[in-house]
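Students often ask why we bother predicting the structure of a whole assembly rather than each chain alone. The short answer is interfaces. A chain on its own may look different once its partners are present, and contacts between molecules only exist in the joint model. In this exercise we take two input lines together and write out one structure for the complete complex. Read the inputs first and try to guess which parts will touch.
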Amino acid sequence: MKLRNFKLSIFLIVIGISGLTFASDTESFTVNGLKVILKKNTSTNIISANIYLKGGAAVLTPETAGIENFALIVAQEATKNYPKDKLNSMLEKMDSKIFSNSSMDYSSLQLTCVNENFEASWKIFADILLNPVFDSSDVEVQRAQIISAIKQNVDNADPYLGQLSIDAFYTEHPYSISVSGTIETVTSFTGGQLKSYLANRMNTSEMLLVVVGNTDRVEVEKMVKASFGKLSAGDFHYISYPEVNHQTPSIKVVKRDLPTNYIQGSFSAPSFGTKDFYTMRIASSILRDRLFQEVRTNRGLSYAPAAGSAARFSNFGFIYVTAVNPDTTIKVMRTEVEKISSEKVTDDELRNKVNVMITQYYLGNETNASQANVLAAYELSGVGFTESEKYKEYMQQVTLDEILNVCKKYMNNLQFVLLGNPKTLDIDTFMF
Amino acid sequence: MNKINIFLFTLLLTGILSVNTLAQKYDIYTKTLDNGLDVIVIHNPAVPLITVEINVKNGAYTEPPEYDGLSHLYEHMFFKANKTIPNQKRYMERLNELGASWNGTTSNERVNYFFTVPKDSVEPAMEFMYNAISGPLFKQEELVNERPVVTGEYDRNESNPFFHLVVAVDKKVWWKYYSRKNVIGDRDIIMTATTEKMQTVQNRFYIPNNSALILSGDITPEQGFALAEKVFAKWENGKDPFSYLEIPAHPPIQKTETVVVEKPINFVGLYIEWQGPNVSEDPGATYAADVLSYIMGQKTSKFYKNIVETGLAYGIQLGYNTLNHGAPITVFAQTSPQNFKKCVKAIYDELNKMTSKNYYTDEQLESAKTILAIDDQYGRERPSQFVHTVGYWWAIAGLDYYLNYIDNLKKVTIDDINDYLNEYVIGKKHVEGVLVSPQVKAKLGL
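Now the answer. The structure tokens for the assembled complex follow.
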């Protein structure tokens, strides 16, 4: 009996910690116009603090494609208060990680460090945004690396297919502007342009800060005020991206001698955070399972059949495969797309898939950095960060009819790209 | 009484823990079942999930030429019919019923399988894992269907220009027993694989005394060990495969040479490989290797500054892959055609200077150790991924190697690093691979 009581105590403690850790306190507040989302997580010694710059591709033009990405990369090289060697040496000593990322929807500068180094790391992090020096030698080294990365993207089949698919799908859309830039635009930017571009983005209404870790509001407010308290608020307005709606199917073939053919068909999908977004996530994942069964398990036609939907503010779904015989393989995939768009999935399929996706949701929230990114995505999309806590609930509410309807509505007029050199190609097979 | 004290007291009371202070420090607990199965529990309740992972000492290193790639094919066959599941369709349905996120990987010296499930499903997930690991059927029709799937994976690898570069260099470095380094395998061997060969792999390697079960996530060691005993104690052990199978040592590289691989690419890739220390033979050198790699990976290092900041390379990485049967030391760089020759010269110049006084400072040495230690904390933040790290170390070097890893890194001195460089790198035979387009090859006279 005594042992059982001990076991019960341990069980309750563990459950308590688990609950506290995941559904921990999340609050938001504003400091000088800068919205801050703070999620307290006491179970780890690691803190993540990310600044997001709103707008993504929509704040770029064909001439400025890639400028934000480029500016954020060079800004990390040296700042007024942290010359190059000092900056690198301090980050190394603390093993604090700072890096930037630019997506179609927003850019970010991200910091991950251990608690005891948060304050010192934050000062460097803030100085990167506020006082970057843009030394000409740093600009040139980073320019060469970015251009090399753009070229290498073309050399590797999967990233190149991804890029080609985006280009084919988002025509006449803000996303058609590359956030990484083109060789021409990246070549054209001067250090001065990069510096003034980033300085002009330093308005608190254009930014969002998300902090996840074992810290508190008082500390964060103090740090934010000290760093960003004097910035102007600016006048940034939320940008709503249009859904893509192709009226006809298409295929673009890019010839390349490869051992197999890389194929992606993209279709319009509900925008991130909407009710149908959750439905499409489930539907496309069920489709993925069926493709795995029919294409890989039953017929051995491919190692990598897939389907899914992205998480963009203006969204797309896709089917994907690498196959030596594209016609045969796409016929099988087409049958499955048509089936899921005309017949209800089973109760078991839906219930089990929801369970799997909830597991994947937790997997996507294991680290403080990933939790920060999830909160930011919900906030920046316009639905609000509190919606992120309702993921499970929304997934569990999806019905069989909703799955059928979302497939009917969206899984058509696929925009295919084929990278490879197939022996035969029946274009009609791809027209659905 | 705080949580930890209650927790440990209870574990001692129930007598199920082989308590080890290092294990406590990392929240990693171990036990060996009577059948020889090592059970490792990693306690991390950050999210309400548990990963159930089996690691097996198998992989390319166990493959003579006639088995080249069959560890990997076996890994595919693991996800098919077994004594309780009639076919792969039902197998996948069951994984979905469990809410599982799943996968398997094959590498040089380890094969692992893992299901991450909601914590309430851990017991059925373990039952499922037990049936899959102990009772695969290798149905002929499933094997026949799976062969082209694996060669499809091969096709994808071959679509990547770097794959060809690494293969070309590996074939020279591990020249005598290349099949034991070739994880993806040989197409012909894969396409002619039989169920008998699959059974041979199973009988040799898929026994509890050659495996580790790791439970990672929202589970206590008490719960984990009890479930492991309940589910896996019935798994019958076998003869230690390494008591009767010879794993031949890779002979030294025959000569220093350059291999050129032509692919239509927009840059020049450089890949240099040496034979480094095997962890069981020279563990001290493995710590020195890791610390050196981290020093040179930092932006303050002369290696980085003189090669990347000068614009000679877009990126450079000095690395060491801890293994027990042929551990490579590698330099990988990407450069432009115009800088290629200068870049190659600079890399060798820098390597040759690494043992000279003041090439790196005491501060950089200490920073590298800090980085390795804190990176370990970052790694442990993700229990579903950390489980793979722990499994890797268990298979390659034993869990104690990992548990003592940070402490041993702290002991590394400049002399240790110099010994490592002199023993394995400077002036030692190596193979240099160059990945270029045919046009650039002609222009550079390669």
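Check your guess against this: Chain B touches chain A through 77 residues (CB under 8 Å).
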